[in-house]
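Co-fold these.
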Amino acid sequence: MSIRARAQPRRAASGSATGRLLAGWVQAHGRAAVGALGRLSRTRMASAMTTAVLGIALALPAVFLLLLQNVEGVTADWDGGATVSLFMAPGLAEADYRSLAADLRLRDDVRSTDVVTPDAALEDFRARSGMDTALDLLDENPLPPLVIVVPAAELGADALQSLSQELGALSGVETARLDLEWVQRLHAVMDLLRRAIWLVAGLLAVTVILVVGNTIRLAIENRRDEIIITKLIGGTDAFIRRPFLYEGVWYGAFGGVLAALLVEVVRLALAGPAADLARLYQTAPLLQGLGAGGMLAVISSGVMLGLVGSWLAVGRHLAAIEPK
Amino acid sequence: MIQFDNVSKRYPGGFDALSDLTLQVDQGEMVFLTGPSGAGKSTLLKLIPLLERPSRGQIVIAGINLSRLGKGRIPHLRRRVGMIFQDHRLLHDRTVFDNVALPLVITGISHRDVGRRVRAALDKVGLLGREHAYPVTLSGGEQQRVGIARAVVTRPPILLADEPTGNLDPELSEEIMGLFVQFNRVGVTTLVASHDLNLVRRLGHRRVSLRDGKLVDDSASGGGQ
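Predicted complex below.
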């Protein structure tokens, strides 16, 4: 009678060997998962507080990233809207700048051009500013003729810059202004913010790992006797480890769900002002939500971090408990 | 079934719990280990499921040389050795049923079989009606019987008991020992450490006496009844 030979449990000879193994594996994991859930529900208050900490720690980077994503979404098409305004010398004949505009239109790096005569510009200004009487006092129209050049969409920031310089040097052109600088500045600010947000997200991820790790360490201490007895009667390390790992996974999952809810709450709380802002700037609606994919990402990062935290705790503390 | 060859165990600090002990227990044998406290009875029992490793010498259990048994195989060894402790070592936040079921859950027995086998084990120790009770609501003798049911529920070929009647009155002690005799009758190799010499003599099985870590008396070397 060999220990090795009899170590395998005797089972009815039905079904394939792999099928039975799989069924056993599923049953073992199901037991561990349900058992861990049961323990969390027995210490409801403490579990809820841990979950709240995890939820907030996960929600903060999610909110920041979502805001960043929204700003990026709104500003993405602003590059394409870049134009070069050519202010012509005042008094230049209309035929001259009209022919310049027609010539420029033939260039590969120009999509279209538009001409604003001084008269049209003044009418427009009058309509928008409401300074009718003040404008009537003017002897002559102070506005220069304007040629608006819309560059080809595929031009990058550097190419736009050099195009603008080149057009500025043309005869008859007083100044060329590239309406892009503030967009570039905005992008630089957003690059900075993006990096800062990812750094904060990294720190909060470490927080989640530490919180779960510490919670699991306490759970291991609380169940010391049970671990010793289980080892005494032949529980493998995997068997003992499993419920603690699932506990970490549950914490991470609940924290992730809470984080997704918090993000939605924040979004709804900001929805009114954001809609006003969008209307004023005549942009697409601001503040898109997480969506199903985003929620899944938040919850699964919670699960992953919970697993990592509990794995670290289990690795450090479980081996130290041996029956005597 | 159990073979000790020149086994010594020295604990850190220099205390020799066992020195140069040689002992053989055949399959199906029943052996009582006697001797004063500190004689090495507990240490001897702990070496069999590798709760301790020997400092010197060789131990072979059911054909397995324990010195060659890797750490990962130890749980499988322990599943084939039922252990009973003086302090029962029950889980007090679990019912009697869950305590006895634990070894079956560990080995991955299917849910349906667990119930059947737990009830069979509880029936053997006379606690069939108490499966939903918690250990604290049971008397010392009943708790010990729960411990025994847990040890035998996987039908291990070897049963070890360390002072199982240490805290019990004579009548209960006799009942508990009677249970071990019953398990031994169905072929389980049984080792019981006890300092209750009167009771052990009355039962009439092989007696091995230890003193200061050495074997001083073996009532029937090579044993069998």
